[in-house]
Write a structure and sequence with these properties.
The complex is a heterodimer of chains A (262) and B (1012). Chain A is an alpha/beta fold and 262 residues long. Chain A is globular, with a radius of gyration of 17 Å. The relative contact order of chain A is 0.17. Chain B is of the alpha+beta class. Among the domains of chain B are: 153 residues, 2-Layer Sandwich (Mth169, Chain: A), CATH 3.30.1280.10; 56 residues; 271 residues, 60s Ribosomal Protein L30, Chain: A (2-Layer Sandwich), CATH 3.30.1330.10; 218 residues, PurM-like C-terminal domain (Phosphoribosyl-aminoimidazole Synthetase, Chain A, domain 2), CATH 3.90.650.10. Chain B is 32% helix and 24% strand. Classes of the chains: A alpha/beta (262), B alpha+beta (1012). At the A-B interface, helix 1, helix 3, strand 5 and strand 6 of A face helix 1, helix 2, helix 3, helix 12 and helix 15 of B.
């Protein structure tokens, strides 16, 4: 297949759908942005697409908790379709609010029948929304989206992005399974430090400095930072100082997704 | 059954809400040893069993990884079990009828479980350590709740069901206005919250006497809304007799003859090259952007609601201004927000607050959170703003919110047609915001909270986002002929305005309501948020309905435009109003208002006699003064990069934390063309000279745009006047004076005004005080510029050691109203003036230099002058700078005595190089801190210096120093004659080091004050 089709799923309050569509188009994909109501009405539409992306925003206002209500809808009405989508070898990407939806709907990590969800994204330690740029290290993994990428410089913009697992066992299991694929790094040194990266380099207090999480197959990825906000050199906050590249650090992720179907 | 779900952080997880309460209480000096445990909670009403509620609690409402829940019917002892060490229990709930978006979302999400709940309400629950009763009350009123929108229940909840409103029984109301005497008319105006003048009330009386009937309440309200200051701007767009030292001038329409006239003159001169599309006509000003798109811009204020309920006021302020571009032409897509606030100093002692006034720190936190939550949820980047502090904003803070939109050129105009359906889209109508329009015509008092509580609203950004999504889809499918927003005055203003040339009939009983019990008049004037009105051809109505349905947006045909020239309101079969459009829009009595401006006697500013040679301390003080200090705490809470077009961010530099002059974004992702957003304002000058304050604000807004690379021949500006009570001729006089400056400066700079808005009566009367406190004259100028290629933009941070620093523009002795005068406690002086002709030439030349790539960094000189600009550029770039004041282009008059002295000494000391200001003692202060307009500091590579100088040939500019890698700002003063150390009375020339400060120290002084 030459050109994969991307379904960008939007809900009331989704607001990064346009620029995410633009990034996928720039990477060579065909893109359709569909409203959740349309997908709920006709879930068979998933069959037309090879990549599903849930973009950033405030789905349903992040009322109750970030991503919770859309996650709830997916859990109750679309879980089987998404499971099939995964099993068919297709790709799923959740950015920011999309990550929150993927983790809270159980699409990214299986729910434990006894204890419920093994991990979540909750309020930043600072207790507030923050927009700032972070340095990310990519861990070795099978994640399709991150192939060949060592590091990225991307912005985060969220209030509820602190990654927390139910207990240390879950964390080491995910670590052992090479699922903790993206970590916040110290911005001053290019080495992943042992232990916790301090605020603001770890902008929310995430356990193990986790910024992005892959499922076991490597075909589902959720991340808090916004790759679609760094696809042009002029997105880099210091491009006027000669820093940054064309295209920006976020672009290879979209290209990896598209090239996976090449 | 009424269930309660309490949600606490799990053991080991932080209690963020509780911690915030403790810190807010400490800020206000309440109970330093307070301990708080907080829970969020839900009340769920319906025929539900425990298992169902527990399932909803576990799977929907709480996050089980980090939270635990307590589920019980309201009244159950389990809910009143105090956590260890906690004694008092306080509940805070939104008052019935106040928008509770989380509850609405929860209700529909519960339905996804197949569980039918009837109603949901959110609550917050606080447990505190032991406190005296009066401290509990204080904590409730100052920290936990706002009486305007929330109710507090101390102790366990006792009620057993949520109120859902009661049915309304139709009751027609007429007001016997014909028989009233003047006293009764005045009373009706005041007590009915119409806030009309006696003459206006008499005009209405005359109109109905002529019709030989009394008006219905709905008719009277419609007239009051339409004639309100907020909707009609009758003061500034009205007749004014103005007197100043030049004589007397009569205005038929003051705004039209000053600000609007400037735009007309500029457009005429531009002729074929005119790039204005629609100015002062639609909900926002429209100008050309590129071959495909126009851009629109509007800035509004939401001051009075924000004084009472900062979060809700700012929230609905930004929500409202976003609807302006959405309601411009056939609907523009909002692409960025701006916000400018004025507060009293946040360190105002809590015990000095007059009754009824919220603490400025609480106001600021609430306002910032309100803008943040709405703007971020709408997915619109908030890219530019400013905050000013003055004690006079204590009871009357200012909240300016702006929005820019992008619209296809062919969608930029609209026309409602007779026969079109009047379709309301979006949020439902409730009692929110009733009398908001007329309320903004009234002075705030300590009683305002109780009188006008209904004027306060809470927004629901997602409802508006949903409306936006369908609106743009419907626009592109051509499903309507016109659109406007419901702003102040609700249906009354929107329908009245849209149907002005046609006539309209409205069916009030069809309007979807949030809850039962609203009278027809309440429906008509409600200012419930997130509603737009469309003029829909009947043949498109079905398609529009189905589009709205597909995205869960409510759309209702509530009337029709009919060619009768009348506005007719019906409730079921009853006609409740019939007003002629002509009387409504043109019947307002012309009033001639008096305006006087008396130029205050010039008061020289007493500066030093040259005792001090070290100005590092005042520099740090200015950097740490609230107006100048870093606003990163605010900026980072706003998403300034959503929509993916960010080019120059509000914070720039080597550590992404220096203060950018303006924001640049690419609204069309596939294009390199950029939009530049900036502002200018300085209320401190207004006290001394409103004319030069206004001229300076325009110069500042324009130079901020130019500093990042905007083309000065394509900058549009907006005015927002916030003034005190203009019934006082002196207050109105100072406003007219400022408007005259707007005209003169805009024409000279060829910078057209495209939109504006004013807010008058910004005064607060504390209980028992005879005189109200009036805000300082506060004119905000917002600017929107353009760049052909964003790749040529520059930022303000220093880039490279060894580069030259040029000052462009002339320093004059203009320390009046300056920040230097403020920090050292000086009064009087000359405020900065503007030589607009020269400014135009400087901006044009500098733009050519930037466009040619000759400038590595550029920063405007404003508050704190050269010293502050150099410091900011240095610490933003992580580099040092060495500057010599004797090279600064200046036009400081040393006076004859000093000139003679210099002359005398320079003859004696022939081998030494004298500066014309060598014996003028204030010279160093003036050159460091004067706030003269039209000045910028530019970093230029030595290789580009020649080309840069050629580009600026004939205009004031000079190399005044260079970038260093020392991490220190060093500024050498003017060489001064001092007695040499021989003791024989001989003098020698000494060049003092007037500033030597590590940039780390300067940065800390700048970042610390507002790093909350």
């Amino acid at each position: 297949m030459a050109q994969p089709n991307v379904l960008i799923l939007r809900a009331p309050g989704t607001n990064c759908d346009r620029e995410t569509a633009y990034a996928f188009e720039a990477a060579g994909a065909g893109v359709e942005v569909l409203h959740i109501n349309s997908v709920l009405e006709n879930p068979a539409q998933f069959g037309n697409f090879q990549i599903l992306c849930i973009p950033g925003g405030f789905s349903y206002g992040d009322d109750v908790a970030a991503g919770r209500i859309l996650a709830n809808q997916i859990q109750h009405h679309l879980y089987a379709e998404l499971t099939r989508f995964k099993e068919d070898g297709k790709l799923i990407l959740g950015i920011c609010n999309g990550f929150q939806v993927l983790i809270k709907s159980g699409v990214l990590l299986d729910n434990d029948p006894e204890y419920g969800p093994p991990a979540t994204l909750t309020w930043n330690d600072s207790g507030q929304f923050e927009d700032r740029w972070v340095q990310l290290g990519v861990e070795p993994s099978d994640c399709v989206f991150l192939r060949g990428i060592d590091s990225m410089y991307l912005p985060v913009a969220h209030a509820e992005g602190k990654f927390v697992t139910r207990d240390d066992r879950v964390l080491s299991r995910l670590d052992g399974g090479r699922q903790l694929v993206l970590r916040y790094r110290l911005q001053t040194e290019a080495i992943v430090g042992e232990g916790k990266v301090p605020y603001p380099d770890n902008p929310n207090g995430s356990m193990a400095n986790v910024a992005g999480l892959s499922d076991k197959t490597g075909r589902v990825l959720g991340l808090m930072p916004h790759p679609e906000r760094h696809i042009d050199r002029t997105h880099h906050p210091r491009w006027t100082r000669g820093e940054g590249r064309q295209p920006g650090d976020g672009m290879p992720m979209f290209l990896n997704a598209v090239n996976y179907f090449a | 059954m009424l269930w309660e779900v309490d949600i606490y952080p799990r053991a080991g997880q932080p209690d963020l809400i509780g911690t915030q309460v403790v810190s807010d209480a400490a800020d206000l000096g309440l109970a330093a040893t307070l301990g708080v445990t907080a829970a969020r909670g839900y009340l769920i009403q319906g025929d539900l069993d425990r298992e169902q509620v527990e399932r909803v609690a576990d799977e929907l409402l709480a996050d089980r990884v980090v939270e635990r829940t307590i589920v019980a019917p309201v009244g159950d002892a389990l809910l009143a079990e105090a956590p260890e060490g906690r004694v008092h229990l306080i509940h805070v709930l939104p008052k019935p009828g106040v928008t509770d978006p989380v509850a609405q979302s929860a209700l529909s999400a519960i339905a996804d479980f197949g569980i039918a709940a009837q109603a949901v309400r959110t609550l917050k629950k606080y447990w505190t350590t032991r406190l005296p009763d009066q401290h509990v009350r204080l904590l409730c009123s100052k920290v936990l709740a706002n009486d305007a929108i929330e109710q507090v229940i101390i102790g366990p909840l006792t009620f057993s069901h949520l109120e859902l409103g009661s049915p309304y029984r139709f009751q027609p109301n007429t007001v016997p206005i014909r028989a009233m005497d003047d006293e009764a008319l005045k009373r009706l105006s005041r007590e009915g919250q119409l806030y009309l003048s006696l003459v206006e009330m008499q005009t209405i009386q005359g109109h109905f006497r002529q019709l030989d009937r009394d008006p219905s309440d709905a008719e009277l309200e419609t007239i009051a809304q339409t004639w309100s200051e907020h909707c009609s701007h009758k003061t500034l767009a009205g007749r004014i007799r103005y007197r100043d030292e030049n004589g007397e001038r009569h205005f038929e329409n003051m705004l039209r003859e000053t600000i609007f006239a400037a735009t007309q003159e500029i457009r005429k001169e531009l002729g074929e090259r005119d790039w204005c599309v629609s100015v002062f006509r639609d909900n926002a000003g429209v100008i050309r952007f590129d071959d495909q798109y126009n851009v629109v811009f509007k800035v509004e204020t939401h001051n009075h609601p924000s004084a009472l309920e900062p979060y809700g006021g700012a929230n609905t302020g930004i929500g409202g201004v976003i609807r302006d571009p959405m309601g411009t032409g056939l609907g523009a897509k909002p692409i960025c927000n701006t916000d400018v606030f004025c507060f009293a100093p946040p360190d105002t002692p809590a015990d000095q607050l007059p009754p009824g006034v919220l603490h400025p720190r609480r106001v600021m936190k609430g306002v910032v959170a309100g803008v943040r939550d709405y703007g971020n949820r709408m997915g619109i980047p908030t890219v530019n703003g400013a905050i000013y502090f003055d004690p006079r904003y204590l009871g009357n803070p200012l909240v300016y919110c702006g929005n820019v939109g992008l619209i296809p050129r062919e969608k930029s105009s609209k026309e409602a047609k007779a026969g079109d359906l009047i379709v309301a889209v979006g949020g439902r109508t409730g009692r929110d915001g009733i009398h908001g329009a007329t309320f903004s015509s009234a002075e705030l008092t300590s009683q305002s909270e109780s009188i006008s509580g209904g004027a306060v609203q809470i927004g629901n950004a997602i409802t508006e986002k949903m409306v936006l999504d369908v609106l743009l889809a419907a626009r592109d499918r051509g499903l309507y002929n016109a659109v406007t927003d419901y702003g102040a005055g609700g249906f009354s203003s929107a329908v009245g305005e849209m149907g002005e040339q046609i006539g309209a009939e409205v069916w009030l009983d069809r309007v979807p309501l949030k809850y039962e019990g609203l009278s027809y008049t309440e429906i008509w004037i409600s200012e419930a948020q997130e509603r737009m009105v469309l003029s829909v051809p009947p043949e498109k109505w079905e398609e529009l309905q189905s589009l709205c349905r597909s995205e869960g947006v409510e759309a209702t045909a509530i009337g029709q435009f009919v060619p009768t020239g009348h506005l007719v309101l019906k409730y079921n079969d009853h006609q409740v109003a019939q007003l002629s459009m002509q009387f409504l829009h043109d019947g307002r009595p012309p009033v001639v208002r008096e305006a006087i401006y008396t130029r205050p006697a010039p008061q020289p500013l007493e500066i030093s006699k040259g005792e001090s040679w070290d100005f590092a301390a005042p520099l740090r003080q200015i950097l740490g003064s609230l107006n100048v200090a870093s606003k990163h705490w605010v900026i980072r809470q706003y998403d300034h990069e959503v929509q993916g077009g960010s080019v120059i961010k509000p914070l720039v530099g080597v550590q992404n934390d220096g203060p950018s002059d303006a924001a640049v974004l690419r609204p069309v992702l596939g294009s390199r063309r950029g939009l530049v957003i900036a502002c200018g304002m300085n209320p401190r000058y207004g006290d001394l000279d409103p004319y030069w304050m206004a001229a300076g604000a325009i110069d500042e807004a324009v130079r901020n745009c130019v500093a990042v690379g905007a083309d000065p021949s394509r900058i549009a500006i907006l005015d927002n006047f916030c003034w005190g009570n203009t019934d006082r001729p002196e207050t109105l006089g100072s406003l007219v004076r400022a408007a005259l400056a707007c005209h003169d400066t805009a024409v000279a700079l060829q910078t057209p005004f495209i939109s504006g808005k004013d807010s008058l009566n910004n005064e607060f009367r504390p209980a028992g005080a005879a005189e109200p406190i009036s805000i300082p004259p506060s004119l905000l100028i917002s600017a929107m510029g353009q760049v052909d290629d964003v790749g040529r933009c520059v930022s303000m941070d220093l880039k490279e050691p060894g580069n030259y620093l040029y000052q462009v523009g002339v320093t004059k002795e203009e320390l009046g109203g300056s920040h230097y005068a403020m920090v050292v406690g000086l009064r009087g002086g000359q405020v900065p003036q503007v030589d607009a002709r020269q400014a135009r030439a400087i901006f044009a030349a500098l733009h050519r230099a930037i466009d040619a790539g000759l400038v590595r960094a550029c920063h405007d000189l404003s508050e704190g002058g050269l010293a502050v600009a150099a410091a900011e550029m240095a610490f933003a770039g992580g580099l040092g700078a060495r500057i010599q004041l004797d090279r600064v282009p200046q036009a400081v008059d040393a006076g004859t005595t000093a000139a003679a002295e210099t002359e005398r000494l320079s003859k004696r000391l022939r081998n030494q190089e004298f500066h014309p200001l060598s014996t003028y003692f204030p010279a160093n202060e003036v050159l460091l801190f004067s706030e003269s307009n039209t000045r910028l500091l530019c970093e230029v590579r030595p290789d580009d210096a020649e080309a840069f100088e050629q580009t600026l040939a004939g205009l004031p500019h000079a190399v005044i120093g260079e970038v260093s890698d020392a991490g220190v700002l060093e500024i050498l003063g003017i060489p001064r004659p001092v007695p040499d150390d021989t003791g024989r009375g001989r003098v020698e020339l000494v060049t003092p080091l007037v500033i030597e400060a590590p940039i780390a120290q300067l940065k800390e002084a700048w970042q610390k004050p507002l790093a909350w």
